[in-house]
Amino acid sequence: MKYLVTGATGKLGSKIVEELLKSIDASELAVSVRNPEKAASLKERGVDVRHGDFDQPDTLDEAFKGVERLLIISADGDNDTRIRQHTNAVEAAKRAGVSFIAYTSLADATDSENLMAPPHVVTEEAIVESGIPHAFLRNNWYLENELSSIQAVIDGAPWITAARDGKVGWALQQDYAEAAANVLLKEQQDHVIYELSGPLHTQQDLVDALSEVLGREVMMQELSLEAYEETMRGAGLPEEVVAILVGIQRSIRQGTLEIHESDFESVLGRPVTPLQEGIRQLLGR
């Protein structure tokens, strides 16, 4: 059996690779990366490192050759870029005769109004239309996404939010990585959707957990979306970053990450890491 993980040198991808190597021999695992030199340490361990660039389909033909089970990790970038890159990857998988695709999607993707949803909707459709057996890993929100805000609090700032009472299923990337590895290794799956959401929490819940970890009260400053936008702009952030941050806050307050039915624990085979413990791990405390 030959497994392949795309984006294997990224933050999530590298964790998934480590999880897979706990269960399979390095000779069974290939990785597709844009810059193979960044995966030199994996090559030294016996992993098959291949050059694969989502913007260069011919490289994907070579990267996916002989692969039976493929994990496509969603790329970064604007929606149009991601749609193009993901479509290239799916088409290359079909040309290569890949027998199974797992894809890291977004919570409740097909019905979501989250600003991040469009590329995932298109990618899921492309995978379905390819006719290749597949599983969608509909990830909620990485706790790591909040690291910059947590660092600001450590430096003395309040927790600034416009998300109101919107709930989020935060979980560590490590939990998502273990789930992805388990799904890729599990055979006889076709058109399976896994909603992977941690326990639901509000911004106040996150602030309370952070207060416990830091051993001091963290103040939360609730703003309107307009005031939040001006605050982010006033902090000197680029306009495109401000737009994304405001969009995320709007998406959370609209409840797009409030997923009540989750497959996370059954896929992990254990409970999701609790919010407070997750923060402790991120901060090394």
Word description of this protein:
This protein has helices spanning 11-20, 40-44, 57-63, 79-96, 117-130, 147-154, 173-185, 203-214, 225-234, 239-253, 264-268, 275-283; strands spanning 3-6, 29-33, 48-51, 69-72, 100-106, 134-139, 141-142, 159-161, 170-171, 192-196, 220-222. With 285 residues, the chain is α/β, with parallel strands linked by helices. The strands form three sheets. A seven-stranded parallel β-sheet has the order 3-2-1-4-5-6-10, sandwiched between helices. Strands 7-9 form a two-stranded parallel sheet. It is globular, with a radius of gyration of 19 Å.
Characteristics of this structure?
285 residues; alpha/beta; seven-stranded parallel β-sheet; two-stranded parallel sheet; 12 helices; 11 strands; 44% helix; globular
Question: Which blocks of ≥5 consecutive residues have pLDDT under 50?
Answer: none
> How are the strands of the biggest sheet laid out side by side?
3-2-1-4-5-6-10
Strand fraction = 15-25%
C-alpha termini separation: 40 Å
Task: Please bin the fraction of helical residues.
Answer: 40-55%
Average pLDDT: 96
Sketch the major β-sheet: 7 strands, parallel
Count of extended strands: 11
Structural class: alpha/beta
The helix/strand series, from N terminus to C terminus, equals EHEHEHEHEHEEHEEHEHEHHHH
The rough form would be described as: globular
Protein name: SDR family oxidoreductase
InterPro entries: NAD(P)-bd_dom_sf, NmrA-like, NmrA-type_oxidoreductase
Domain NmrA-like: 4-245
Organism: Exiguobacterium profundum
